[in-house]
């Protein structure tokens, strides 16, 4: 019997619970969450086999920490204090530098693996959990060399079994790159939503003029502030840099419009069209 | 036999051709396009029954003008010159003020209906045409009172039969509102794509770190520059206004990050989360 503990039963933790259950039939899934309603919901939905508390962590073989990154900073060292020497703990947070720092000098650093599965939806809570969410998705692993070899093997085998593609990276590079391809998208979407909602205060009923294009660009503005505010805080310097570049590009586009240089605007768009080819690349799973 | 002419056999024109064929079995669909390849492709795909030229427009009962808005300005008066007194011509452009102005004093103004179906995808050309694209979608009609009553009836019945919901609006209001819920989304998406592509020049391989969130926010950056540059040109003043508001909101978000006021950032996101309810509203078709 493998005892798997999932701390934080939202979209990400709940989806791991479902996938692990399906590839490790013998595993017992224990759930920990400060939100008692979420814990009961996770039990009702069959995400977990039983509710647990921090005091049960001594039984754990595998611990998944799927909570806001601000909470992880304080809780990860406590979790490592509580687990056995042969247990492995991994997090799934969207920032990696501060999290790796928080456990850098912990006596059980070798029991920890820093991970970031690139998967999710704009929804949150136990009911948002999806079976197969991680299939063909990239999982970024940081500082793999700091995790005990046998525990690396164990967790990487689990990731492989649920269909993930592994990419190794140092925490600083992770945080710099992810600011561009994830964190900035969330801000652009939230601010787009804000801009249009503000307009709607004065001009009623503009939303029935919105189509699927608006819906797509504003989708991430549904995301959980409790998850995202701490991510922006932990990745502040990188996010500000991407925002400055984004704002600069928007200002330049605005100047071209003001000047009436629509040939330049055509060229800007045509150059950016190659995002088509790039996105195709994202969607082709490695055979 | 009803003779329907579709001028411009891209996503929008081609999809109209498909839907009209399915609700008007007796109609013959004639295609006109300056791009001979598109014309042949439309014929091969069964979007149209036969190829036609401008000189055939005298046979037309219904003419759909689905070409870039810049081309419509010059071509619409010519088309009206060529059609019979009982024919009806409608356009589908994403701007309405300049198009309505272009035909305002035409002797056949009563043969024209200004429309903007809120439907589409990021793809273009005849192969992008989709059957049922317009089902439950909003179609904005401008200056309906300027179209002959019997011709209004004829086209509105057609729109109803292919499942569209009709909304009436004056051209200036259309252009002001659509800048927020459509044109701005396209710019935010194009500039997001540009910002990340520029980064990739220096930092290789960041795109396999991108997930579905990035893909969703950047989807519209695949759109056709030939279609969009003229839209931005015709709606310049409104688009610049929305861009200024969007850039202002991004700058304010950046300042909050710089100051480290993540409580305010949390609140910004929480306030914008109500886009969830608004988007739900978009997706519920009127019974």
UniProtKB/TrEMBL annotation, chains A, B:
Stretches assigned to the Prephenate/arogenate dehydrogenase domain: 2-287
Enzyme type, top EC level: oxidoreductase
GO molecular function: NAD+ binding; prephenate dehydrogenase (NAD+) activity; prephenate dehydrogenase (NADP+) activity
GO biological-process terms attached to the record: tyrosine biosynthetic process
Alphabetized UniProt keyword annotations: Oxidoreductase
Pfam families linked to this entry: PDH_C, PDH_N
EC number, as in UniProt: 1.3.1.12
Signal sequence region: none
Spans through the membrane: none
Family matches, as PANTHER family: PREPHENATE DEHYDROGENASE, PREPHENATE DEHYDROGENASE [NADP(+)]
NCBIfam families: PRK08507.1
Protein name, per record: Prephenate dehydrogenase
